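User: Structure please.
Assistant: Input sequence and predicted structure:
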Amino acid sequence: MQEGQFTGFKVAIDSSGIAWIEFNEPERLNGMSIAKKRDLIEVLTQAQMDNAIRVIIFIGQGRAFCAGDNLKGYTSQAPDSKLLPSIPPGHDNALGTYNSLRHISQELNLTVRKLDKLTIAAINGIAIQTGLSLALACDFKIAADTARLGSATLRFGLLPDEGGHYLLLEHLGLVKTMQFLMRKTIATANEALELGLVNEVVAEAQLRQRVTELAVELSEGPQVAMRMLKRSLYQATSMSFEQACEDIASRTAITDHHADAREGGNSFREKRSPVFNRWLDDA
């Protein structure tokens, strides 16, 4: 995975394999563009293929995590990204809107969800529409007490078309999602916690520290088993009980015979803390 500055965000990786993706256009409330989404998809694909990356954190600068799409990007040519040449932004006709959604906006959230590395959304401020969906696609959501979360697409006569409706249903269920979207709710951090949209709320000044603590904890766990478990959990949401049992049995056939499992057993017998992931250190 490559460090450095990309379109609208920068990437930094620490020695324990924790990657920080930091949106750095605070003057634009870290709004999304076609070029930014394409760079994110490519960077996340690099992260998936890089075994050294264990945890990925998303965070924003300024008072927004991400305040949705830059609507001007619907009618203007996107600038070249760092990684890829520019493409038409779409949304100029029905087919353009379909293609832009399926291959860019929705693909970003699908890419986040398909990662087997664990992801954390550090919601430092406003998370609206695309920003909310990106956060909900992550495995863990920690919000600053100053954060605000909502979809609000109906305020513009638009839909949560990047997959936000599904992600809200996943977190809230049908009744609460209907109310959340139809009434154009913008929830405070504590209201989001009560609804189940976030795992935890912390003081704004403590957000980075708390997220770092969680990321370190996750990075020290048995990576192969954790990645297998993550995939099984998401798979199980759309499977029957029998199918979910079959899925996790096939994964267990791998994890039970991995070096981390042997280390787990040895450390238990020797009454010490396990030291997992030596296979990664050796690599």
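The first strand starts at residue 4 and ends at 6.
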